[in-house]
Amino acid sequence: MQETMPPPPLKTLIEEMESSSIEDVPWVFICPISLEPMRDPVTLCTGQTYDRSNILKWLSLGHNTCPTTMQDLWDHSLTPNTTLHTFIFTWFSQKYFSIKKSLQDVQGRALNLLESLKKVKGQARVKSLKELRQLLDSHPSIRNTVVEHNGVASVSSLLGPFTSHVVGSEAIGILVKLDLSSEVKKNLMKPAKVSLLVDIMNEGTIETKMNCAKLIEMLLLEGHVSLSPSLSLLVGLLRLVREKKHPSSGVVLNGLILIKKMCSYYQESVITSILSIGAVPQLVDLLPTLNNECLEIALCILELLSKTPEGRMALKDCPNVVVNVVTLLMRVSERCKQFALSILWGIYKLAPEQCASEAVEAGLAGKLLLVIQSGCNPILKDMSVEFLKLCSLNYSASIFISKCMLTTTIQ
């Protein structure tokens, strides 16, 4: 007969139970001073019991009273409460073995589900994947077990050109909860798998879209420059950014973050592709609808695009870009203002008269003066001064001053 291993010391038991968020500890086990389970209960002459470390600290501070009853202590001796210690130890030991058995059962169930994925198909496969995903959600501690038993390879092998979206959604929901090796990431970047990922992201639920975006981010972090994102992936991310059903769900933010990272990682190849799918007018039209966090990332993307000749041309040809950027200038951070001025500067290089005229009519001059007077950082102030000078070149002094809407004193 196999012997049962003895439980750890009480201190270790309590620490492990606290990490498991056990909230049903009997109140009699709780120290009145720390409101935490007692590790070494001792009783005062008043009959009140406390954890030894807490009552010693109380007494060391010069107190001569019982913390609970506030009675004067006629005896400072501490009597170990062995009966209560036994009750506490027994209660936590039972909890410990119960949780340990439950975890072993969960691990065993997870491994059985992994094994079943090699055999079952259709709805049975979907059911196994869904149960495994739910286990990983509710028991994060089994994630290492799944990885160690080749679970990542088993699940990722289910993604392919003929995978149904329901199977793919569940598989992706599992993969984003696990640590992926470089080899697995390379495998997931194969065109057929990326195509499936994009299709699922476009048609899935909000949770599925979020999982797809997270998986794409995990793949990007691998930093394989040779594995440049496909055009279909960029199209999918742009659709994600234009999500209208759940704009506050975080999907838009995730999409913008991924596009920004791709522009930063892969630069020329992605910028060329993203311009070819009409990203500039779509992002420009989105600007007025975005919250400040999304707006900063969107302006950063447009600023990255404005650094290329093709990007500047696309911005110049976009009818609303100057008005939208100028309108947002005073509701954003200094970082956003720098992005905005950099975008306008790029357009000005191609069409100085058109850009200056549209910007001034949209109220840029007055806003730049406010920026200059606001005590902003030197770089932003210099940019504002220079752009204000450029805008004034196409106007007489009196007309430009009237466009600024200044008071007589400032004039």
TrEMBL record:
PROSITE patterns: U_BOX. It catalyses: S-ubiquitinyl-[E2 ubiquitin-conjugating enzyme]-L-cysteine + [acceptor protein]-L-lysine = [E2 ubiquitin-conjugating enzyme]-L-cysteine + N(6)-ubiquitinyl-[acceptor protein]-L-lysine. Residues 24-98 form the U-box domain. SMART domains: Ubox (SM00504). InterPro entries: ARM-like (IPR011989), ARM-type_fold (IPR016024), ARM_PUB (IPR058678), PUB22/23/24-like (IPR045185), RING-Ubox_PUB (IPR045210), Ubox_domain (IPR003613), Znf_RING/FYVE/PHD (IPR013083). Transmembrane segments: none annotated. Signal peptide: none annotated. The keyword Transmembrane helix does not apply. Keywords: Transferase, Ubl conjugation pathway. Functions as an E3 ubiquitin ligase. This is U-box domain-containing protein.
